[in-house]
Design brief:
It contains 13 helices and 14 strands. The strands form 4 sheets. The protein has a 7-stranded parallel sheet with strand order 3-2-1-4-5-6-11, with helices on both faces. Helix 4 links the parallel strand 1 and strand 2. Bound molecules: uridine-5'-diphosphate-4-deoxy-4-fluoro-alpha-D-galactose (UFG). The site of uridine-5'-diphosphate-4-deoxy-4-fluoro-alpha-D-galactose has 21 residues, from helix 9 and strand 8.
Length: 429
């Protein structure tokens, strides 16, 4: 928004000039003790001021032929412009700062849109790029500058960096369905890896040196020990996790060769919705546990399938670490500020460090919704690890991350609020 910013700054300078004139005029009327010399012995002090300027600069700045009424109108216009300028200044606190923007790639998606809302709430200027393949235009915060396009399109991404004043990038623009990645791996190599390669090339050329990256617990594969540490082996068991791990490696080697630092955030099970009720989870097709459970009380599904009851866990169902999407959003802001403050490239897990079984999640949803939510026990879903729980000590210690919505009940309450109000996601709004 470089040009727009310049325009606003120019408007502000004009408005500030007019305000200064207005103040000067008023002060002159109040304090300059000169004889009225205007044609009507002006009662609003027009002639006095004219005399004042005349005396001060030796220049006849105002015309005698202008009537008092016209002079009042001019005053009001000057004052109006000045007020508009002031309002612009207040609305855009950072008008005269080097107020560059954060570029959020994939900012119309689930976690991206929540991060954009939180960035704007934190006073950042935000530019969103999304190809709207899985994201929704309506999920983009109205104050964000939106560009429709694909990160694999080099000319497009270059043009965004040229038009905008970008301080750092938060990168969510990737395909993220485990099942789909096994059926169509090349889609994942194209969107996730080729897209990131084009992005990094453009960042290097344009001197953008900070990137926060949306990674996943799927990079670990089947864990060797619980809770999972960032230093644990990474052996992905699906193509999605493999491409995310390769993206992390691309950042690593690029950061060694070029002036660029990155933070990779490996999330566990993202869930919940923004407490403001305006944005939430909307996937098509939906495969995630909590939104699928909530389709039952929302009369869109008769029962929830429980995939596998013979795991080595307390009730035989899989254990996951559910983390609220707003807490993830906050972690991205902290990570960007960490890089701004000179932090070195790093990788952090994001989870609550507490595991819940599928049955426990269903039970909590019953309590929240007051609906019996029938469940059907079914065979295991291919590729599901038994237990995934994060150790997020490093994110807490180094980034200062403090999850605010760690209670599973609260997580489901926020999701329920969203799904009740938007049973068909953004489409029916
Ligand atoms: N589940 C059911 N019934 C359903 C849907 C899911 O029992 O109808 C179970 C799954 O088998 C799993 C648990 O609920 O045990 C959670 O499943 P999700 O699909 O909600 O989430 P996943 O743990 O499979 O996947 C999440 C992210 C992935 C990421 C992965 C990391 O969605 O992007 O964690 O392991 F890769």
């Amino acid at each position: 928004m470089k040009e727009e910013k310049k325009k606003i700054q120019n408007n502000f300078i004009v408005a500030a000039g007019l305000l200064a004139l207005f103040i000067l005029y008023t002060v002159a009327i109040m304090f300059v003790d000169v004889q009225p010399i205007g044609p009507q012995g002006s009662s609003v002090g027009f002639a006095e001021v004219n005399q004042y300027f005349h005396t001060l600069f030796g220049v006849n700045m105002l015309l005698y032929s202008i009537t008092d009424w016209l002079s009042i109108a001019v005053l009001f216009i000057m004052f109006g412009f000045a007020m508009v300028g002031l309002v612009q200044l207040i609305k855009r606190k950072s008008l005269f700062r080097v107020d560059s923007s954060i570029l959020v790639l994939g900012g119309a998606g689930y976690i991206g849109s929540h991060t954009v809302y939180e960035l704007i709430a934190a006073g950042e200027n935000v530019v969103v790029v999304d190809n709207l393949e899985t994201g929704f235009r309506k999920a983009v915060h109205p104050d964000a500058q939106f560009y429709l396009g694909d990160i694999r399109d080099k000319a497009f991404i270059d043009s965004v960096f040229e038009k905008e004043d970008i301080d750092g990038v938060i990168h969510f623009a990737a395909s993220s369905q485990v099942g789909e990645s096994m059926k169509d791996p090349l889609k994942y190599y194209s969107n996730n890896l080729c897209g990131t390669e084009v992005l990094l090339e453009s960042m290097v050329v344009h001197g953008i040196d900070k990137i926060v990256f949306s990674s996943t617990a799927a990079t670990y594969g089947e864990p060797e020990s619980i809770p999972i540490l960032e230093t644990d082996p990474t052996v992905p068991t699906n193509c999605y996790g493999e491409t995310k791990l390769s993206m992390e490696k691309m950042f690593h080697w690029t950061s060694i060769a070029h002036n660029l630092r990155y933070v990779s955030l490996r999330y566990f099970n993202a869930c919940g919705a923004h407490p403001n009720g305006k944005i939430g989870e909307a996937h098509n097709p939906e495969t995630h546990l909590i939104p699928l459970i909530l389709q039952v009380p929302n009369h869109q599904r008769e029962y929830i399938s429980i995939f596998g009851t013979d795991y080595d866990t307390k009730d035989g169902t899989c254990v996951r670490d559910y983390i609220h999407v707003n807490d993830l959003a906050q972690a991205h802001i902290l990570a960007m500020n960490y890089l701004r403050n000179g932090g070195k490239s790093d990788i952090f897990n994001l989870g609550n460090g507490v595991g819940f079984t599928v049955k426990e999640v269903v039970e909590t949803a019953r309590e929240v919704t007051g609906h019996p939510i029938p469940a059907k026990e079914e065979a295991r879903r291919a590729g599901d690890p038994s237990t995934l729980i994060a150790s997020s000590g490093r994110a807490k210690g180094i980034l200062g991350w403090k999850p605010q919505y760690a209670d599973l009940r609260v997580i489901i309450e926020t999701a329920w609020k969203w799904h009740q109000a938007h049973p068909h996601g953004y489409k029916a709004d």
